[in-house]
Amino acid sequence: MELFLTISPYAVAYTIPLLITALGGLYCERSGVVNIGLEGLMLIGSFASAFFISLAGPAMGSAAVWLSILVAIAAGVLVSLLHAFASINLNANQVISGTAINMLAAAITVFFARDITGSGNIRTTLAMNRFDFPGLSDIPVLGPMLFTKTYHTTWIVLAILIASIFIINKTSYGLRLRACGENPHAADAAGINVRRIRYSGVMISGAFAALGGCCAFLTYSREFNGTMNGLGFLALAALIFGQWKPLGILASTFFFGFAQTIANVSSIVPAFERVPTIYLKTFPFVMTIIALIFFSRTSAAPRAAGQPFDPGRR
User: Fold this and answer.
1) How far is the C-alpha of 152 from the C-alpha of 113, rounded, in Å?
2) Is there a contact between 84 and 76 (Cβ–Cβ < 8 Å)?
3) How far apart are CA 254 and CA 13, in angstroms?
4) What gap in Å lies between CA 85 and CA 199, rounded to an integer?
5) Residues 39, 205 contacting (CB under 8 angstroms)
């Protein structure tokens, strides 16, 4: 129990980027567009945040940290429009389009990072600082787990999660989003602009995935090095594991975040000293494969996810 409470704050920190990125994938796939490019969009968000802080940080100080979040979101939305145009307007294969986003993001960000620093790595001392909630951090069990050594971005993302539960399940937009992912032709016959809804889903996924990359950079990473270490693909796995539902995604991302924490803090936890490092580093990805094996048969993906929409064909 003591070990669990010790690593829980780190697990929450690793969970948050996965959670917001998987939520972005949820909006996208619920609209009927598969977004394999979440990894690349996270990379865009991480780079945009790092780039803005490197430029504006010396003059603006901590204000640059908060503004970098908005810059990262804007960059993610702009890049996601490439995927939206290819998938929705050109009816391109969505898996290939998303893969192209991943490759493009990796190439562009590393190119500009090398142009800025000469090494491809951008480090910062301006980032989110941990804090303890006054009073709440003293609650037994829950205090050390949730309210100790936490970040502001954690609570921003949790607020987005709560809002997403309401939006997807209780609003007309959520109903239209789900309709476009299940039966776009029926939605079109009901007067819903399927392409507009799908564009919005892809843009939200770009914003959220970029926010995920930004959160990783501003909290535990504090360095852009040209890779997200597979976090975008873990977010996709969490989306499937969570059955395309917000609360399911919360549970699955915490599971994967906890696995990632074990891999990353193993060197400072005495209980893991005798375990070979290679086993711990591969642990989150092995758990991902095992989880997908057990839950793939019961997956309830949107029926029209990945299928191009042609209003002229029924």
Assistant:
1) 27
2) no
3) 10
4) 8
5) no
